[in-house]
Give the backbone structure.
Amino acid sequence: MSPLPSHFRSAKELIDRSNKIILIVDERLDGDTLGSTLGWYFVLTALGKSVRIWSSKEVTHLWDYIPGISKIETDFSMITTWKPDLGIVSDSSDGIFLQAIIKTKIWPLISFDHHSKNPGYANLNLIDQSAASTADVVWTFLKWANYEIPSLAAQALLTGIFTDTNIFSSSNTTSRAVEAGTHLISLGANPKTIVQRAFMNKSLASLKLWGTALERLFPDPVLGGIATALTLADFNRLTATPEDGHAISNFLNQMLSEEYDLVTVYQEQPNFLIKGSSRSRQTDVAKLVSEHYGGGGHPLAAGFTITNAKLIQVGNLWKVEKISKVD
């Protein structure tokens, strides 16, 4: 469902009359939430607003090429002491991590998103499920509102579009996303920087980790399709970080032949957590992973977290083994 023009008007009225605006980053810290949020930062700053950005987690070096990344703060007390007039959150589909803020805030919240499972937790919800990315939704609104998009904002927004469409190669790419990308490049965004930093520029540890993932491909007996598994021992042995495994599922989804519709990457995390990332060309993986592991996302791209579990090898296969609850 596309946002109604009345939502656009209401959002613009709130933004125009607000002087202190806090931007909130979703806890997943992916290219779309960061790109959309930092795009807003430069747009609102150009409008003369006082703007601050809050994240519940530290942002890793993986994203340090996005303009304005150093502006992000993680001190929760800032939320209450700074006393903003308005909050804007981009690409946060469920708002679970926002509940503490929502319960205590006295300022309105606007949500920009493209996830189908967004329940509409904000005061104003500009959710367009047909959009390729949240950056796409933000761009559409900025164009409608006739707000200036500075070159640094264009660079940040193009990052969101590129990372969520795999540089216009994924099945969720739309003509509007391409139009947005073309416009942002005309405003000064540099696509080469994003391609090099987001999709290339891999460390030696990262390449070795990817090699392990490719070597371990196996038929997934639970979700179907092809899967691979990366353990904590792999990360320690290769001195790799979770960020080094970023985008493996996207790569496999693009590179595997058409006979493999579905691919899943299982990664062990500290404290007996397993993070999963599924990609598909046709299967509704959001529904599939929700049925088996919880989680969700888009029909062709979804993620999940399994608690109190570890990965074990059984012959040539890997499986999730639940363990006794860990305190």
User: Anything to note?
Assistant: The chain has two domains: 5-199, 204-322. The domain at 5-199 is CATH 3.90.1640.10 (inorganic pyrophosphatase (n-terminal core)).
